[in-house]
User: Fold 3'(2'),5'-bisphosphate nucleotidase CysQ from Marinomonas spartinae.
Amino acid sequence: MQDVNHHPFFQALQKIIHDAADVIMQIYQRADLGVEQKSDDSPVTAADLAAHNVILAGLQTLTPAIPVLSEEGVAPYSERSKWSLLWIVDPLDGTKEFIKRNGEFSINIALVENGQPILGMVYLPTTSEGYFGVTQSYQGLPIGAVKWHGKDFESIKMREPRDPIIVMTSRSHGPALPADLKETLKGTYDQVRELPKGSSIKGCRIAEGIADLHLRRGPTSEWDTAAQQAIIEAAGGMLVTPEGKPFRYNQRETLLNGHFFVSGHELAPHVLDWYQLHDKDEED
Assistant:
């Protein structure tokens, strides 16, 4: 998988995401980020819109026959329900972190076929780190996951859980790890440490073996999870519902996700058992 950086399709997609990162960082340096409120009261900035335009133009050139579903460009379900193959894009995942200027935001691009993410790319503009995962061979791309930083590439995979268990928590959404889940994990592992991060960085850190678990009990949308799910699955992990089922995309009128967690297969039974004892629909 490490040689994927020489594949022309990967190189073209990487250029698109790098170009989007360039326009984001140009705006990030400004005093005025162009912050507005959308109809759902979530923030949007000039960087969200500029990155959307760059990615949309790039994908339309790379794969003109494949439609794009973006957070900043949502087609009605009557139209997109006919799309068996589509791109799902979040031009700027972690807008609140962008506004806070803490650097913890990403760009997410996923290719979804029949509801399943078959490849995903996530890029962190402030650190120049990128992640790419393929779950089903497409355009001759090999199955697996890779991380790049500048010109350095390495294959990545989930780590086997060990002490201390590292839990990624959200920087801006939802509470810390529930105390009773922490106690459940301590029944097997001596230490549980929490590490807050923003956006899809959490899932990518788990995919590369830096952390073990992320529990998300607040709202997300399909563009928040599709790309990281492909990377996590390609690295040998799972992003699943409280029932242990992987997310499927563009299958419903709503684009909102339910609760989910990210982990390896060895740690997952502990979380699934904990969920059985709790109200899975509890709001944060």
Summary: Residues 280-284 have pLDDT under 50 and may be disordered. DSSP finds eight helices and 16 strands in the chain. The chain has two domains: 2-155, 165-276. The longest strand covers residues 85-93.
